[in-house]
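Hi Prof. W.,

I finally got the Sodium-dependent transporter prediction working! I wasn't sure whether to trim anything, so I left the full sequence exactly as given:
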Amino acid sequence: MSVRGEFSSRLGFVLAAAGSAVGLGNIWGFPTQVASNGGAAFVFVYIILAFLLAYPVLMAELLIGRATRSNMVDALGKISGSQIGRATGVWGFITVSLILAFYSLVAGWMIAYFLQTITNMFGLNEVSSWLTNSSATRDILFCGIFIFLTAGIVTGGVSGGIERWSVRLMPTLIAIIVLLIIYVSTQDGAIEGWKAYVLPDFSRVMNPDLLINAMGQAFFSMSLGVGTMLVYGSYIAKHERLHTLGASVALVDIGVAILAGMLIIPAMYVALNNGVEIFSSSGELIEGDSLIFTVLPALFDTMGSVGIVVACAFFALMVIAALTSSISMLEVPVAYVVESKGVERKRAVWGLAFTVFIVSTIIALNFQALFGLVITLTTKYSQPLLGLVLCIFAGWVWKRDQVLAELQDGFEDAEHSVFWKIWPWYVKFVCPVVIFIMFYRSIA
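And this is what came out:
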């Protein structure tokens, strides 16, 4: 059996884990949540809930991963000492694989729109039209390209693949966002967007919908519940202080989400100034795929020749954001197949990548029936329930002295720290209740 990989540096781990957390949802979901829920008031609540809810669950995954030095299936089996733990790991394995299947389709659209900016430069109008018109052929082709890119990185292993590319992709992603923020902020209408984003409406802070939305955004934006952080945690060196590493990941994830808002909301108001409709029939800001594939391309079209360059940079940003998340998703099943089944890493990666591609193809060919269904089953039902079960394992099943012993690796005074005085009871009592309430409200 091959030796397990390990992150070679703290920075490598933080950028890889933050990259896993920073996905398309941060960039197209968070900004419109902010603008629709009281501006900076939502940001304020989101930051608080990210540390009150998401950070404790993140720490549970990192601690379980590093303590067991295992994939999700074996890790939960070890700390529970039962088949229930292993079954939960398999559930996570299946969930993250299904998420990767639909996520790869969306990421494929990003690649198609990125290439369309290049074909526009050369006046290839027919090719540009094909790239931006939805079809099963286009979706399957670019989904396959995206999965190929993901698998190519994951075959390199932890330090040679995931870490190596994360320390390149994440700084590139942040640099592109900052440059686009600077450019967009100089355009007419941007100041109205900044007002919508930055000025708080504190009268809405205790609004139940705002709290639920902020809670959901905090939990899901950190890639929790599906084993990605658990597996990454299993690759952390024993001498590292886990609670500070976890805090660093949370801060980078929050920071990128806030930066995305500083780009997207002013850009939407620039689009409004340029005659593009940014509000839905109900008066809410347009969000999701309509924002990315309708509103923003319409804005780029109004910018003339410079709009092509801005569009190219924007969709490059979206592809990078998708890629930093997808490599962590693929690593979850790969770690299990390599460690538990003894399959050689390269074979495991390409075999699983091909399986995910087949599932993506089935979704693409039955798009109306399956796409929304798979998203709902995985992100609305399965992911929060997995997060709930992980809290139960960390708080109720895993022996407290074993948890402390793991935390003391790299942090000898852990027993007397503020973290240890709060986290065990918090993840035991508070997190499960809050996650359950959030889950119930989302489906009720």
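The two ends are 47 Å apart (CA to CA). Does that look reasonable to you?

Thanks,
D.
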